[in-house]
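To: structure subgroup
Subject: Chain for Friday's discussion

All,

I'm putting the inputs and outputs inline so they're searchable in the archive.
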Amino acid sequence: MCRRLDYVVESVYSELKHQCKQCALRFAQQDKLNAHLDWHFELNKREQLRSKKPLSRQWYLSAEDWLETNGGLTAADKHRTVPFSPLPPSLYSHPL
């Protein structure tokens, strides 16, 4: 049943005469298309403003997050050695 039914295609396109040039959506009424085009305009305007504004990164946790996560450490991090942390006495107190 792969037959083209021209009357079906024609009925779809005759009812939805107005087509958006940006995304190909179709509308029955011109005012609906105009509202849709306004939406595209606002969306593009927001994207342009976002692209001009530099991205900021939060380098530090907020105070609430810091307290909730115990200083940003997970359970696995607590068992790792930190660079320049003091060694346990048993490792450096051997006789010469």
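Points worth raising on Friday:
The chain has five helices and two strands.
The mean pLDDT is 77.

D.
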